[in-house]
Amino acid sequence: xxxxxxxxxxxxxxxxxxxxxxxxxxxxxxxxxxxxxxxxxxxxxxxxxxxxxxxxxxxxxxxxxxxxxxxxxxxxxxxxxxxxxxxxxxxxxxxxxxxxxxxxxxxxxxxxxxxxxxxxxxxxxxxxxxxxxxxxxxxxxxxxxxxxxxxxxxxxxxxxxxxxxxxxxxxxxxxxxxxxxxxxxxxxxxxxxxxxxxxxxxxxxxxxxxxxxxxxxxxxxxxxxxxxxxxxxxxxxxxxxxxxxxxxxxxxxxxxxxxxxxxxxxxxxxxxxxxxxxxxxxxxxxxxxxxxxxxxxxxxxxxxxxxxxxxxxxxxxxxxxxxxxxxxxxxxxxxxxxxxxxxxxxxxxxxxxxxxxxxxxxxxxxxxxxxxxxxxxxxxxxxxxxxxxxxxxxxxxxxxxxxxxxxxxxxxxxxxxxxxxxxxxxxxxxxxxxxxxxxxxxxxxxxxxxxxxxxxxxxxxxxxxxxxxxxxxxxxxxxxxxxxxxxxxxxxxxxxxxxxxxxxxxxxxxxxxxxxxxxxxxxxxxxxxxxxxxxxxxxxxxxxxxxxxxxxxxxxxxxxxxxxxxxxxxxxxxxxxxxxxxxxxxxxxxxxxxxxxxxxxxxxxxxxxxxxxxxxxxxxxxxxxxxxxxxxxxxxxxxxxxxxxxxxxxxxxxxxxxxxxxxxxxxxxxxxxxxxxxxxxxxxxxxxxxxxxxxxxxxxx
Length: 701
Fold this sequence. Notes:
The structure is a single chain. 75% of the residues lie in helices and 0% in strands. It starts with a helix and ends in a 19-residue tail after the last helix. By secondary structure, the chain is mainly alpha-helical. The model is unreliable at 684-694 (pLDDT under 50). Helix 4 (59-87) runs antiparallel to helix 7 (144-171). The chain has helices at 5-11, 15-37, 44-53, 59-87, 91-109, 115-137, 144-171, 177-199, 206-227, 237-267, 274-292, 296-315, 323-348, 368-392, 397-400, 403-410, 417-445, 450-468, 474-488, 498-521, 528-544, 553-573, 582-601, 609-630, 637-649, 656-682.
């Protein structure tokens, strides 16, 4: 009988999970001991702080999250003091200001990708909430000294927990981000090779290729997001971060280039020469061998041998071969060069001093409507909780304003946040009976003994930390761990109040469930408006792609397209199967950027003003044509601008072979516009087959 993977995480944990749970217990024990020794008012906040830092145990990530947590805590503490200084006599206005502050932080976090920076925004909102609400709830502590004491106590508790977690992460069985990046890079390269092979497989399906692209994009984002934390792991950290970013860029370039070859193979079989068919076979077999080898050196040798073979075959071509074949060899060579650069960047993750290139990091897509939806959701959860608190005057309602709000910010970037909160709600229900019937009776008999206190706390927490150690069970562990600590409230002056524990347990579970309902009620926009903005921003970048330094143009475009591709896949998943064409639109935009850069690379820097003006107008027509095909339309503007560009190139020093290659590229782009427009207008069910009424329109200069 095979155990369910979720149960196996708890009942048969591996060594990594055991070390993770043990480190979490050590961090919380140290935080609790120091908080009690320092006579802090609520030591359990130090434990919660330590728990959140241990979710990603790698040293660099813990340090980065600790800095974000401390920074967010200090900013939130300052804002909380400002609200109290101005609005203490007007508690309702203070609550409104808190709601706006939480909404602002939640909305700002939606413009980021790194989880640690998102956590910093969450701490800024929660710390201000703790300071203001606790001060208002205790009128006897509303003097200037009392308010300052509340603020310093909350900030001290949270910073203490962050410091203890960072120390334990560095001193006991340290795990490093460098190793994590190597795993991400290896997975990304394997996924890339699988996609390259899949694009060249005649029997492959469109759905399978899309599924592979989705998996590959997730690996690229994981590699990019975690690379920022490697800076905290010694002098080689910056080199490793650059190497990880280079792997991201080159895998994106490989996706764009292979689609040109794959579409040619599937849609224009009659145009393929015997030489092209032989190269397709060589490419497919080489990608398969590289994916199956376990040695990075062997994969590099295979890629270099493939490039050598392509160069030799290209030089051996007859002068009478079709322009399409010449273009095909060039695309295949560029693809192989990108693959070699990706493999070299992967090798630099082990020898970071070798990586000197400085590619830009992938940019998050920032949409104000998405940010508004995330901010509104967190603000409404807080407002509902505050309304219950004001209406009932119950201390338990304070719990509704803390953990649920934090979860709405932290989980907003996850693919299925409502399902994560659903799992957290299930285990939060268990925290109350375990606190009432296990922890409190034993702690009441501990008679103030810290070792006994620690043993009673550690048993359930160890199991919860085992669950947190794995991605698939993280929500279950987090849903139990934090409510359990809040319910028990370990410290110097524990009250063992059964009524308090029961009411707080009900409040926490209800709050998480409210957050779950809000995720179902308010979802980030994924409809026609978002799709139009994504396409419009891509078209704007197509117009600007040639403006910067030539050596940085492709990386600049890739960096801005990556997160747009992710959002377009989100948009596709919200549509019926027959209308899921927007991931293809995003990948088409990525390829158009690369093709246009290749065309501009053949224009001499000292070309005439007429050539430069024609090239600028052609680039505008390219972006306009891309937007039109996304609307299911085409016009003749792109063909006209292409013909003008070819006429201008006749006297610009471009040789006949290059002109033939450019002509072929322009005709392929026009055919792509026709195909995409027909798909979006008529809802073609098989998006890899060109509709029969589409014909290639030759461009006459």
